[in-house]
Each structure stands twice: as C-alpha cells, then as structure tokens.
Amino acid sequence: MNAHLQERRIILKHADDPSYSNLIGCYLREGGYETLKKAFAMKPEEVGEEVLKSGVRGRGGAGFPAGMKWKFLDRKSGKPIYLICNADESEPGTFKDRQIMYKDPHQLIEGMMIAAYAIGAKQAFIYIRAEFHEGARILNRAIQEAKDNGYCGDNILGSSYSCDLVVHRGAGAYICGEETGLIESLEGKRPNPRIKPPYFPAVLGLYQCPTIVNNVETLCNVRHIIEMGGEEFAKIGKPNNTGTRIWCVSGQVMKPGYYEFECGALTLGEMIFGVCGGLRPGRSLKAVIPGGSSSKILRADERFSGKLKDGTEFDWGLEDIPLDFDGPASVGSMSGSGGIIVMDDTVDIVEAMANINAFYAHESCGQCTPCREGSLWMRKITQRMCSGGAREEDADLLLSVANQIEGRTICAFGEAAAWPTQSFVTKFRDDFIKKASETVEEKNSRKLQLI
Amino acid sequence: MISPSKEDLVTITLNGVEVEVPNGINAVEAAALHGKEVPHYCYHPKLSVAGNCRMCLVEMGTPMRDRSTGEAILEDDGSPKIGWVPKPVIGCATNVSAGMHLRTESDLVTECREGIMEFLLVNHPLDCPICDQAGECRLQEFATDYGRGFSRYIERKNVKPKRTRLGPRVTLDDERCILCSRCIRFSQEVAKDDVLGFVDRGSFSTLTCFPGKELSNNYSLNTVDICPVGALTSTDFRFKMRVWFLKETKSICTESSTGCNTIISSREGVIQRITPRRNDLVNDTWMTDSGREIYKLVKAENRILRPSVGGKDLPLSEGISSAVRILKDRKVGVVASCKSTIEEQFLTKLVIDATNAQVYIRGHFGEDDGILLSADRTPNLRGALINGLTDSYPEDHLNGLNEALASGELESLFVIDEDLLVSGVDQENLKDVDIVFLGTHSHATSNMARVVLPSFTVFEKEGSFINKSFIVQAFEQAIPGPVGLSSQVEILSQIINHLRVDSDPLDAKLDGVWKSMGEVLPDLMGDCDFRSLVKAPFQIDGSKWSHLDFVEKNALNFESVKGVQV
Amino acid sequence: MSNPLNLSENTLSKIDEVVPKYPEKRSAALMVIHLVQDELGAVNDFACEWIANRLDLQPINIKELVTFYPMLREKPWGRKHVRVCRTLPCALRGSYATCKSFEKKLGVKEGHVREDGEYSLEFMECLADCGQGPVVIVDEKTYENVDGDRAEKFADLLLDGKLDESDEFQSYEDALLKKTEE
Q1: Which residues, including other chains, have CB under 8 Å from residue B175's CB and lie 6 or more apart?
Q2: pLDDT tier at B565 (50, 70, 90 boundaries)?
Q3: What value does the mean pLDDT of chain C take?
Q4: C-alpha span between A65 and A218 (Å, rounded)
Q5: Which of A235, A259, A292 is the last residue in one of the domains?
Q6: Residue A450, domain member (yes or no)
C-alpha cells in the first residue's frame, strides 16, 4: 500500500492497541488528563479561542465549525449553561463514536471536561443511544474513575470549578441525533425537534438555558486541540478541513471498517480500492453514498466538474473526490458523519432506495407535515415498486414528493429523507423506469434482497 | 381591542407594498392586518407556537448590508437589495421587525401550500359528505384554494381509531386528525388538564387520552372549536345541523361575572349551539362547557309561557294591571337581580323609586376555577352597583328580607327572578304578602306569586352586562321569544308608566333606556348609546367600589385587586 | 412510596439514585422507564401511571414516550430477544437473509414473540456497527458478520444455549471485556 494510505490515528490512537483497555490506568499511562491540567491553567475564553483557531468542524454531520458554535453561546442570560455530548450515533453507515466510547472513554471525558470548563457549563450530559448498553456502562464506570481522580465532578483538579457528567440513555430513535430533538428527549419529552428560530440551543437549549451540543468525535478533538494548540491542529488536514476524520466504510468492499486519516489525505477511490481492498472479485462499482445514508448518492460513472471555494477548477470522477468536508460537498453531496456506503453491481438501486425510505419513514418523528406524510409516502411507493407494482410515472412522483419535503420541515430530517430520493431518482432514472417492466424471473434472479 | 401606539409600529414590505404593523407580531398576524390571509392549522393566536403544520410558509428577507461598511447594498435601479432567506419560513414563528420583507403571494409560497395540502390529504379519509366539520373545516377550505383536484396517491391509507369517546362531550376521529397539537397545547396551557397526547410516531401518531382518563374538564369543548378539521367534534352537536344553515348572533355568557363573549348559532328560531367569540380582554377565544348548555333553558320544562293572576292564565296586559294594583300605594319590597341586564336594573330602580320600595338583592356564588368560571355566578352584579340597587356587596341570601317580612314591614313583594325560598326566606313569612313575580322559569316562589309575569331569556332579548373587570358588554337577540310574551324591559317600562301616570311614558326601546341612563348616570354611561356598545364594549371606572370584597380570584385576563382591573 | 409494581429493592434504589441527577425531575423519565422495563420486561399502562406519579407527571406523558421509542415496550419480548439490523449497510451484506434464517430456525416471525415466550425476533434499524454487518444483538450483546451460513450456525448455538462459549462468535462487548481483564 502507498505510504500516504497509511492512517494517521489521533482520536483512535489507542483504540485497537492490544495492550490498551478502557480503564483509566491505560489512559493515564498514555498521558491522559494532562491536557485537562493544561486547560485549567488557561482562562476559559482562551480555551475557546484555541478551538476557534483550530478551525475544527463538527463531526456529527453538519460540519459546522465548533469554535463558532461556542461563540454563539448566550453568556449574558445569567441562566445555567449546559454541555451535551451527542452520542446518539445513528446515521446509517456510521460507527465511529462507538469505537471511541467503548475503547477509549476517558478521551471523551477529558474532552468534555475541557469543553465544559471553556463554556462554563454547570452540568454536562452524554446522550448515548440505548443500543449501546455496554457503552453506557463503560462510560459510567469511566466517569466514576475520573471523579475518583478529581478529573470530573466536584472541584475538578482542586479548582473551584465543578461539573457533573451524567450518562443519559436514549431508546432507539434516530431523531434524537438532531440536537433539539435530543434536548427535548433529555427533558423527558417526545423528541420532537424544536423550531429555529427561536429555539437555538446556544440561547434557548436544555430547560430553555444556553446549551452546547457537540458530537463525540468533535469533543475528543477538543482535547487534542488544547494539547497541541489551535494553530498546530489547524496544520493537520487542509485549510477549512482541519484535523483527522474517522471514515466508516460499509457495504460491498473487501475490508470495511473505520479508518482515521488527515482530512483530504486521500481520495474516495483510494479509500475504496486501496484502504478497503476494493470490491469482491468480479464485481464493479455501482454507486457510493459518501456521508451516511442521508447524503446524496454518487454514481460510479459520474463526472463532476466545477469550482472549489478557493476558485480552483476541478473535473473529477467518483474516485477522485478528496475525502474531507469540502470534497463531497463540492460534488453536490456531503461528507456528513463520515459513513461511506459502497454498492457494487449486484445492487438493485430501487431496492436500495426502498431500504433507505423504509428507514426514514420509520424514524420520522411525525411532528411536521411534509416529513411525516412525505417520508411514509415515499416508502410506500418504493415498497410497491419492489413488489411488482412499479409504474413508469413513479420516478417523477417520487421526485416530486421529495421536493415537497426539502426545505419545508422543522428540522434537517426533511433533507435527510428527501436527499436520497432526489439523488437516487435523478441519477438512476433508468433503473426506476425499468422497474415497471421487470419480470418475475428478473426479480427472482437477484440474490441480494434489500427490502 | 387596544390599538398599538404609533411608536410600536414598524414599516415592513408585504408583497412589495410598504405597510405599517405592530413591531414583533408574527407574519401571519401582520399579513392579516393588511388583508392577506396566510393559511395555517397549528398556529393559534392564544396558544404557544408549535410550527408543525408548515402551512404558513412564506418568503422572508431583509435589506442587505455591506459587512465592512454597514451600508445598504443597492440594486441597479437604486432600490435596496433584499437578502431573501433561501428556504421559506413559517409565518407563525417569524416576528416582524422594521424593514422586513415578506412575500405571502409568490410561486414558491403557492407551491409550498399545495405541497402541504397534498400531504395533509394523503392519509385523510376525504369523508366530507359525512363529516360534521364540513362547512367550517380549514382543510376543506384550503383544499379548495390549494388542492390539486385529483389524487396522486394510490397507496393504502393509514388506518386509525374512529368515533372514539374522548370524554363526555367530545368525540374523536383519529383518521381526520392532522396532528396539529392545538388540543394538546390547549389542555396543557389553558385548561391545565394534561390528559391528551400523541402515541406512536411518524405518520402513525395518534391523538389519545390515557386509558381510563377522559377529556372531561369544563373546557373540553374548546378543543372542538380549535380543531381545524373534523377530528374533534361535539358529541352534543354532532350530526344535528349543517353549519351553513346556522344564523350567528353575538352574545354574552351569563354563567358568571366573567362575561365570556359568545356566538349563538340558531336555525329558524331554535338554538343549536353556543361557541366562544374572541375578546382578548375577557375570554380570549375560550368559554366553559357549562356555559354552552345554558341555551337549554329556552325549552326547559319549567319555562313560564303564560302570564297569570291568581293561578289563572290571562293576557299580559291584565297581568301588568294586576301587578300595578299590588305595587301601588302599598308597603313594597323589591327583590332585584344581579342576573338582570343593566337596562333592566335601571328600570327596576325606577320601580323602586316610584313605589318607595325597600330593595333587596342577593348574590350567587360558587367555586372560582381561576380560568373563566368566576366565583360570582351572575353576569351583572356590578350593574346592580352602578344602578344603585345596592351600596354594599350582596351576600348569597336574603335574610334581611326574611326579617322584614317577619316583622310585617311589607305588604307587597316584587320579585325579579329569584326564588326566595332557597334564599333564606321562610315560607311562613310570605303568607300575608302579595307577590308579583317577573321571571323566566317557575320555582317555589313563582308558584306562590299572585301575579306571574313571564319574560324572555337572554337569548330572546338584547341588553348589556358589566363584567368582573368593569367592562360593559352588549348582546343581541338571537331568537324570538315565545308568542304572547314580552321582554323584561317592556314589562318594567309598562309597570313604571302605570305607576307614574303624571310623567311622560318611557321609551321601552334600549336606545331610550340608554338615553335615560346617560341622564341619570352621566359619569359612567353618559358617552355611550346602546348601538355603539353593540359594536364595541367599553371599560368603566370601577374604583368607586374598590373597597368592596369582590369574590373573584385571579384568572385568565383578570387580576383580583378588589375587583378592579389594573 | 408504595410499590404496586413489585419492583425489586435494587431497581427502586436505582430509580431513587437517577432522579436527582437531573435539574428537572421529568428529565429522568427515559432512565426510569428503562429501569422499570429492565425488570418487568415492558411498561404497561399501570407502570406508566406509577412512573408518572414518581416523577410528578401525568400518565399520558409517559405513554407518549413508551409508544414513541422503538426500544420501549408495552408488552415484553421473549426471554431471549434477538435483533437483526435491517438498514442498508447491513442489508448490503445480507441481513435480510440472516433475518429469514433466524425466523426459520427460531420459529418466530420478525416483530413477534414465539408462542412459548422463549424467543423474539426484531428486524430493526441501524445499530451503528455497519462495518461488520450483518449485525445481530442478542439481549445486550453485539455480534458481527452474522451472514449466510454463519447465521444458521449462530442460530443453532443460540438454540443450544452455547453461544456464550463459542469461539467463533465472540461479541463486541466480550472482546473488550477480555481486554480489561487482562
């Protein structure tokens, strides 16, 4: 393998080290909580400055600069401030936060306590998805260890600053990954996302108090930013795409898994055909979903051309797309939560669409009209199409329904549900049209069932 | 309604036209002020903003400014360049500020409305022909404006519970529910009875009550009023009448001193239902369930339908003559009523003056629910104060009358409405007095009366009341009264005319009564006449009575500072 | 507080411990529901009322949650509950076939509990371990790459009660636990 296809592990440095467990001893052995001490020697606002300088972008999906998010915090309200770690990892195709929490929980706790100190949080929460039973236990044990050692809880490092950290378990709802839905859930209500305006978490978050919600990987990055300094961190990766990213590759490649690289260190092609060992013998690439199931699908034979933000022109095939934030975005999709789903030529694209639509229809909270009715309608259409009832006009109908959802919902779930349909139907229009004339034999000859 | 002062107004650009609107109101209200309807379902002016129906999506923009210089960026033609928000925004959660641009009429806005309408209808049963909401259904109305006219939906519709009994007065059809959450928010925020909720999720979300619980509070029917579709219907009104046949009359609820503004819906002289009418100073858009039942008094079994003297039915004119004989030149006691209208009380006072009568008046009190049912269960106690029927705060008995009767001070009694026998008067003491009873329904006292003069219920007449906040509110006649009967105002006027043969006869029309009132009470009523009162209620200064111990508690739109609204 | 649900002392004390962790009682709702469900297997209307009472809420506030979240139950699953991930990444690696073979082997349709209450099967949405799909969770343990023939073998071991001892199918959790113990 080419040297530049070697991972650069910062967040996952110890995750798969056979001699490293998730107990505090291992963490301390590797210099754990030293950065917390460094942070506590700084003023909280200085910590925030370093994070801003680092340019680190949120790893949860939207890619919003974390330092900027912290800047929006309403510090004048006089109300308590809360920090929440979004550990609801549930975007299909994403499994990076799991590795951190199960294998190196103290890294997250240290990152959180630094962040809590920086924003002046009164209390911090980790909202973890309920399927991570053991993950919650590991975190609780790790928090207790951290408390016993003065890294968390009352009078952290002997200072006057205290911040309790509570692990809160969800119960299997994707919508809790949306930060205002998560807040509602944490308040003990149905996780219906809130309207924004006025309920921006940084101003009116948990209990209507200023609240910062950050992803697990983002908070771990905070620890490394403070350790190396914001400017130094910004040198990793590329401008506007700083740090490393943990890419989660799933689907039909030889070696799926999680791989941590500097942002922009490799292309999508290098990831699939180099790092992940390519496709199964005899298979060819059909499509890739680059950033979790809600990101727009990319066709293997597509050409992408245009101008990057810095003005440079590009003309890429799918394999040339750089793996960072801006690369997938500049070809009309997104890097999202880093979940790369690879599909080879055994995949029936309409069935794949039906699979995704079933997910979003199941996960729609049902609060607002377009998402509630539109996501289920799209599911019913694709389900019917895969059960012998396809019509040629269904392609246009699907597209129209998706267009009626996008941009009109309370939260970004509307886009998450609409983007797959919009991109699948637009890019694989023939597959959708052909479905209407598919014979039973053709249908039965397919080995891989997706719906 | 209180109009905002000039300083609170801002200029916004609505569909390209500069208009003034109060600062900070939402775009739905702002547009409405200038005749532009923004369709909506979940938004309700008196509930928290949920923003879930997405029907009120509009375009919003602000003039662009250069980030470095702060100067306005201009278009080629010199007009300010508007930075439009790329996505449509919901009008209900968009508060206007100076310079804001709104488009409620554009291709994008129309497209949004059409999209939402289609979504709302895909799982809707489309059963308008058998739906009670037809005619006042927002879904039906906006489907006419923004519906496609045909369905693109060929899948199976979701199945949900139908004809569920949600409580004693409310029936739920979940298939028609569009999940706007108005009823849930109402129950939590206004009725303070958190019994409704959504179970399941997504498109399968279903409105329900917790098993074993009911939507049975005294405000449950407001959920029917605010349900924008046919999901929540009134069990009482269900299938009784198509709403387009109904005549609507503005009225005031007589249940308590709150004076909820109401609409009486009737057809061919028969009342079908009572619903609340918006008044932001009084009842917002709500009323009690119990207040909606009052119309049943019209056809109550004990309704008095014939004037009588000595138990014999006679024409009204003969009843009035007999009454005058009993009241003239004798020792008279008058039992006035807090249930009478201002006008009736004014005339009652004239009877008292003409007969030199002793006056007695009682209050009717109950539990105050802190919302709209006040402890004073009469609509016009303050009218009695203003008309000088009493100086002290009425107590809920007539013990004083009983004593007067016991000591033989009285020969005749003119009783308006009250049942003396449930007011602390001993039957024994009534043996030797002649009673003239003026009222609508029979009871022990009316049965003992020498002369019975039946009159109209609140629905059959017009008049006005003064509510607990000293707001004077008028109501109109909804239905005709029973044949052969007259209003209290008419009857009292005739009695007075007989008693005061030397004076000019009274004008029994309310305009005339108000003219006289203006002369007698120039400070309080001088500036108003009845017809303008019908158009707009007015506030009078109640500070003169602030020393009285009014029984009302703090409630919706009411702060109990000795009864004076501050 | 009385104990009409007959919850164990352990559960009751855990509930007492978790409630004050939150600035507002209502926040503890999910955690209390989890604790009750862990012991009773489900949260029925009666349990909703008890939880609501414990948190000064209305029972509908709890039922709204129990019916919203897929992992909360009004009726219990079987004694062994098997979850198979249905979502695209796992489906691309054969999870539909895995689910089918479990249905056959365990004798229960997905979404149901076997008549004897022994097994229940759930074909559920993404379990966040997509790199090693098809992912299967038995009770609280996660098993990876349970596809094709391996799925049949897996089901057999499960039925024989020998899954825990199996070298071939070590759960994600047990692998980590082993590391901690070393």
Answers
A1: B123, B124, B125, B157, B158, B159, B160, B162
A2: very low
A3: 95
A4: 10
A5: A235
A6: no
A225 near A48, Cβ under 8 Å?
no
Enter the ipTM.
0.97
Q: What is the CATH number of domain B308-461+478-509?
A: 3.40.50.740
Hey, of A369, A379, A410, which one would you mutate to test binding to chain B, going by the most B CBs within 10 A of its CB? A369
Domain shared by C89 and C45, yes or no = no
Please give the tally of structural domains in chain A: 3
CATH of the domain at A358: 1.20.1440.230
- The model's pLDDT over B191-220, given as tens digits with 9 standing for 90+, comes to 999 999 999 999 999 999 999 999 999 999
Lowest-confidence region among A233-242, B92-101, B498-507, C93-102: B498-507
Question: Residue A363 sits in which domain range?
Answer: 349-445
B209 and C59 in contact by Cβ < 8 A? no
- Strand blocks (E) in B440-555: 451-454, 463-466, 471-475, 538-539
For residue range B528-545, what is the model confidence (pLDDT) as tens digits?
A: 889 999 999 999 999 999
Q: Are residues A172 and A108 in the same domain?
A: yes
Thinking of the domain B127-138+149-244, which architecture would CATH place it in? 2-Layer Sandwich (3.30)
Cα distances (angstroms) measured from residue A436 to each of A379, A393, A445, B465: 17, 9, 16, 71
Assigned token pair, C31: 């955690």
d(CA A59, CA B407): 92
Range of the domain at C110: 80-181
- At B279 the pLDDT is 97
Q: What is the pLDDT of residues B118-137, one digit of tens each?
A: 999 999 999 999 999 999 99
- Spatial CA neighbour of A193 closest among A4, A330, A364: A364
pLDDT at B529: 87
CA atoms within a 13 Å half-sphere pointing along the CA-CB vector of A11: 31
Ranges of each domain in chain B? 6-105, 127-138+149-244, 308-461+478-509
Tell whether domain B6-105 is in CATH 3.40.120.10: no
| Longest Cα separation, chain C | 53
Query: How far, in Å, are A15, A105, A167, B111 from residue A109 at the CA level?
Result: 15, 6, 11, 48
CATH number at residue A131: 3.40.50.11540
Residue C155, domain member (yes or no): yes
pTM of the predicted structure, to 2 decimals: 0.95
CATH code of C146's domain: 3.40.30.10
Which of C86, C128, C173 lies nearest to residue A134, judging by beta carbons? C173
* Chain C residue numbers touching A250 (CB-CB < 8 A): 89, 92-93, 130-131, 133
- Taking alpha carbons only, the member of A84, A128, A77, A82 closest to residue A102 is A128
Q: Residue B353 phi/psi, 5° resolution?
A: -65, -40
Q: Is residue A201 a contact partner of residue A184, using CB atoms and an 8 Å limit?
A: no
Instruction: Kindly state whether B35 is in contact with chain C, defined as any CB-CB distance less than 8 angstroms.
Output: no
User: Which residues in chain B touch residue C67, judged by CB atoms under 8 angstroms apart?
Assistant: 199-201
The answer to whether A157 contacts chain C (CB < 8 Å) is no
Q: Is residue A451 situated within a structural domain?
A: no
A151 and A61 inside one domain: yes
When pLDDT is cut at 50, 70 and 90, the band that residue B2 belongs to is very low
